[in-house]
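From the methods appendix. Each design record in this collection lists the tokenized structure first, followed by the designed amino acid sequence. Records were kept in a plain field format so they could be parsed without special tools. The example shown here is representative of the layout used throughout.

RECORD:
FOLD TOKENS (1024 positions):
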């Protein structure tokens, strides 16, 4: 019941804080024209603060789980009351952990085994102990080469080189001596004055007889007499920067802080402590922090984040040495546990912003999401906001852990003002950024918030400091939650995360032109949410239930269940009289006892948002902890023949202590997708036309490949011939039936430069189901776009399906085999075929035990100067992870390729630099498991390809030398022959390549088609 105690003490805590800070409060101001660069005004934050100056997040902690938060960044130094902004920093990765060794003082100096020497230690305000075996002194070195794989920060002190080293000492000293010299600690003093819970926690911390200190040679001059000993950041808010002694114009690129954890051996003897230097070497976390709670960002009065009065704590989960600041094993778990503990230990309400996530492969089945559902069920006072993902505009692309039902996931909203002032774009209306992930298979996003901003960044970030993404939307929502918590505390109202989520959804403003699966409840509106939250907080019924667990049949899930009804199956969507049954079960507040749960009763009224969606019973009830079934039906007459519809059934409390929007307890999401069945009736092709596609909007089209299709060609035309004018433009994205992007990226079609883009999807990517084709207009378009999208299918049968053997092979020796190709769709193929041995390959199953990292060493030379790797994992493994980075490192450990798994697949490649005749490399796979226990045994499939500098080319001829024509139903007997062989393969590798058939039809030739369009690829896999 610790969570309940902390929650109920929060109002008193915050009122005490407000009383202390009232005289220091910054005067509320609402500019006549609010700053557009950090658009918290879109969610009503500016008007909210003008109406309620003290309801600006003060008394609330926002925990930023990200790449770190920079305490030097203008806007992150003080709250709206003038007090300290950043209260705690912790690194849960090992990026900031430097090894330390025990050292002894020699002639007044300490010397590291690597040769670094530190003098002037006696002049420190609290010097290290001298020759006291009970209290050893430890030494380490911060070295710039450690940053070789961190973008923009390889010169950590901005002095022009990348080889500097900064030695440091770690030791303990008597608390009395430390506090006499350095003070009792401003951070601990602030916390101790908040409330009884915090005072007791601080008193316990101050009971320790000794204190850890760290002395860093921040200017690298080998002396400590000009340095100040540092304590754990939360004690006194100690920050430092690295400087260049011979570079007076160098900048302080970022803020560093430190925390020390003591370690002992099994007998209790001291071992080397863990010394973690927190820093934001990725900038993402600092940017999000400013959006959520920045105050006078960039030193500009009035340029605030959503909750400028809130405190921040930084929980670093992203290792910036990996692509995108990827997480490591259990970093998310440890950070969430720390944020919960911080709130409970000091009696403070905590809202988390985690603008992190990866592609979901099976919504709702990920380990971290399930773990978070359990954590939040135990901690009602703890609220988590996260980004919905940047894999849009396709359906079913919400990431993890955003699909967790307990989290508040935000999509990326784009206002007209943001488009104009941050992108110099003229938008006809508010919309979403195209990249914003959409839901469908899961009821996400919950809301949308501004997805772009100028915000706080460390000093090494040059340029506009404008980032975009759902990463920028989530901290807007987190800041809104902080404002609501601040208001609730000052009104002496107790709330839990379930109320906050309900209030945000019910109080949001629907955005015209956006579907349910795009925006959820709509644009965050702080005042609207408050109007819902206040009656919820005064309701007994709202306190009893945190949330409702919803389950319904879903063919895309391995267990057949999801939290939303999502039908994207050709001919398989249930229509009346068939029923779709939702199972709904309460998640009780942990304070409820067995008798209260047993006596629990709720009655609901239901309302459908759409005429095609019918509720079969207008009232249903829940008694005890039983699951309630709610049946709905779909009216086939009102569903589109092609397209997508999405609507909710809204469940409202019937006859309870709430009314209006506050009575909305839960929603049942329904999405139905229908596609054009392309077949012989239309020549295996269909055409979509679009008129007036506005900037930064998209249109969706859906097709069903015919049986036997082996190639899908999508041709997007934006030309003057179809009405497009200068300034128009559109791009095409192809999504398979599960929302995975296929076919790559072909760029924008524009009438003045490239009026046509062609994309082709072949097996194994091409498969049955309903495919989504998204045509998206660029944000910078100067004119509306007219387009034509033609989708056509080809079908071929080959015998054999893979060429696994050639009659002879080897250097200088001819090799040949036979191949039969039969066109199975009407029409004639006119073109050419090419045979090519591309290089050597192998495919193997990789098994990893008791480790989260796997490496593979390989070499490149003049024969095979390029390597490509394609990795795949199964859904069960992917669901265990929070990230999986994939790097290629050179012989010095520098990353020459940095990426990660996207869903179930990852690709990495490297080529020898120009002029090089060889090199050694390492493929590195770093898996981040949500729970460490799951790393005991795991694996993936690895395909390695080593490409020839000069591929071996062959000929494809038809018997008798006839031109290559492939007629429907007529087998074509072909000979594949190589006059010359290829180098002998290394051990365990085998030659590979393909026979590629290219359509050279001139009727609709487009730029880039001069070599023909690929319509069929027959693999060559020579395994013996």
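DESIGN:
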């Amino acid at each position: 019941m610790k969570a309940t105690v902390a929650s109920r003490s929060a109002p008193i805590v915050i009122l005490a804080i407000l009383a202390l800070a009232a005289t220091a409060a910054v005067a509320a101001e609402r500019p006549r024209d609010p700053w557009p660069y950090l658009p918290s005004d879109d969610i009503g934050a500016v008007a909210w603060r003008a109406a309620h100056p003290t309801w600006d997040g003060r008394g609330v902690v926002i925990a930023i789980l990200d790449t770190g938060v920079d305490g030097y960044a203008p806007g992150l130094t003080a709250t709206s009351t003038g007090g300290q902004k950043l209260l705690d920093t912790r690194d849960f990765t090992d990026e900031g952990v430097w090894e330390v060794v025990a050292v002894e003082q020699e002639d007044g100096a300490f010397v590291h085994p690597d040769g670094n020497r530190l003098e002037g230690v006696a002049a420190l305000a609290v010097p290290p102990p001298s020759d006291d075996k009970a209290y050893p002194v430890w030494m380490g070195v911060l070295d710039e080469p450690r940053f070789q794989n961190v973008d923009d920060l390889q010169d950590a002190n901005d002095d022009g080189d990348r080889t500097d080293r900064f030695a440091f000492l770690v030791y303990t000293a008597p608390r009395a001596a430390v506090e006499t010299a350095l003070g009792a600690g401003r951070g601990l003093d602030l916390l101790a004055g908040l409330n009884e819970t915090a005072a007791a926690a601080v008193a316990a911390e101050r009971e320790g007889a000794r204190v850890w200190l760290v002395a860093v040679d921040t200017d690298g001059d080998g002396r400590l007499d000009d340095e100040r000993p540092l304590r754990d950041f939360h004690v006194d808010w100690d920050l430092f920067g690295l400087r260049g002694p011979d570079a007076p114009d160098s900048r302080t690129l970022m803020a560093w802080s430190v925390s020390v954890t003591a370690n002992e051996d099994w007998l209790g003897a001291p071992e080397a402590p863990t010394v973690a230097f927190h820093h934001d070497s990725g900038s993402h976390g600092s940017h999000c922090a400013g959006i959520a709670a920045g105050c006078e960002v960039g030193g500009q009065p009035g340029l605030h984040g959503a909750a400028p009065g809130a405190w921040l704590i930084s929980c670093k989960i992203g290792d910036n040495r990996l692509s995108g600041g990827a997480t490591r094993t259990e970093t998310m778990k440890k950070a969430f546990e720390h944020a919960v503990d911080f709130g409970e230990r000091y009696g403070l309400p905590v809202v988390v912003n985690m603008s992190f996530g990866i592609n979901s492969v099976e919504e709702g089945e990920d380990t971290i999401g399930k773990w978070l559902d359990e954590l939040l069920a135990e901690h009602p006072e703890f609220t988590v906001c996260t980004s919905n993902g940047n894999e849009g505009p396709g359906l079913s692309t919400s990431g993890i852990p955003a699909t967790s039902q307990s989290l508040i996931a935000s999509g990326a909203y784009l206002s007209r003002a943001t488009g104009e002032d941050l992108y110099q774009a003229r938008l006809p209306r508010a919309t979403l950024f195209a990249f914003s992930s959409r839901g469908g298979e899961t009821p996400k996003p919950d809301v949308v918030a501004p997805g772009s901003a100028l915000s706080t960044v460390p000093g090494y970030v040059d340029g506009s400091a404008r980032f975009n993404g759902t990463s920028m939307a989530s901290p807007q929502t987190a800041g809104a939650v902080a404002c609501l918590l601040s208001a609730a505390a000052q009104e002496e109202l107790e709330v839990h995360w379930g109320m906050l989520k309900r209030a945000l959804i019910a109080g949001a403003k629907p955005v015209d032109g956006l579907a349910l699966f795009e925006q959820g409840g709509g644009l965050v509106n702080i005042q609207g949410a408050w109007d819902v939250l206040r009656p919820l907080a005064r309701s007994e019924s709202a306190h009893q239930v945190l949330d409702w667990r919803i389950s319904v049949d879903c063919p895309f899930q391995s267990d057949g269940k999801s939290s939303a009804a999502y039908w994207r199956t050709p001919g398989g969507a249930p229509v009346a009289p068939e029923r779709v049954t939702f199972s709904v079960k309460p998640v009780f507040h942990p304070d409820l006892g067995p008798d209260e749960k047993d006596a629990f009763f709720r009655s609901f009224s239901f309302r459908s948002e759409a005429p095609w969606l019918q509720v079969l019973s207008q009232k249903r009830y829940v008694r005890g902890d039983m699951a309630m079934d709610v049946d709905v039906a779909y009216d086939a007459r009102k569903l589109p023949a092609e397209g997508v519809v999405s609507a909710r059934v809204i469940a409202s409390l019937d006859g309870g202590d709430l009314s209006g929007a506050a009575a909305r307890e839960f929603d049942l999401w329904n999405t139905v997708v229908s596609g054009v069945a392309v077949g012989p009736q239309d020549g295996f092709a269909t055409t979509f036309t679009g008129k007036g596609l506005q900037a930064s909007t998209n249109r969706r089209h859906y097709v069903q490949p015919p049986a036997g299709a082996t190639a899908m060609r999508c041709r997007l035309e934006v030309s003057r011939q179809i009405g497009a004018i200068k300034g128009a433009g559109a791009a095409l994205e192809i999504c398979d039936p599960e929302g995975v992007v296929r076919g790559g990226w072909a760029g924008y079609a524009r009438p003045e430069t490239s009026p046509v883009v062609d994309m082709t999807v072949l097996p194994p990517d091409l498969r049955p189901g309903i495919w989504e084709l998204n045509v998206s207009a660029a944000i910078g378009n100067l004119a509306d776009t007219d387009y034509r999208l033609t989708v056509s299918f080809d079908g071929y049968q080959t015998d054999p399906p893979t060429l696994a053997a050639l009659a002879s092979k080897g250097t200088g020796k001819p090799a040949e085999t036979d191949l039969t190709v039969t066109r199975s769709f009407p029409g004639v193929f006119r073109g050419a075929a090419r045979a090519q041995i591309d290089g050597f390959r192998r495919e193997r199953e990789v098994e990893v035990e008791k480790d989260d990292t796997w490496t593979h060493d390989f070499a490149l030379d003049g024969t095979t100067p390029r390597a490509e790797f394609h990795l795949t994992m199964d859904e069960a493994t992917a669901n265990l992870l929070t990230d999986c980075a994939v790097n290629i490192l050179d012989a010095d450990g520098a990353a020459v390729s940095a990426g990660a798994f996207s869903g179930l697949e990852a690709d990495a490649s490297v080529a020898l630099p120009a002029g090089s005749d060889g090199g050694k490399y390492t493929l590195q796979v770093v898996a981040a498991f949500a729970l460490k226990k799951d790393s005991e045994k795991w694996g993936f499939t690895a395909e390695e390809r080593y490409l020839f500098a000069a591929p071996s080319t062959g000929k494809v001829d038809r018997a008798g030398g006839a031109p290559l024509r492939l007629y429907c139903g007529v087998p074509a007997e072909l000979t594949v022959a190589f006059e010359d062989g290829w180098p002998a393969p290394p051990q365990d590798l085998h030659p590979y390549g393909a026979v590629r058939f290219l359509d050279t039809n001139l009727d609709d030739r487009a730029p880039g088609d001069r070599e023909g369009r690929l319509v069929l690829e027959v693999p060559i896999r020579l395994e013996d």
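APPENDIX NOTE: Residues 470-490 form the longest helix (21 residues).
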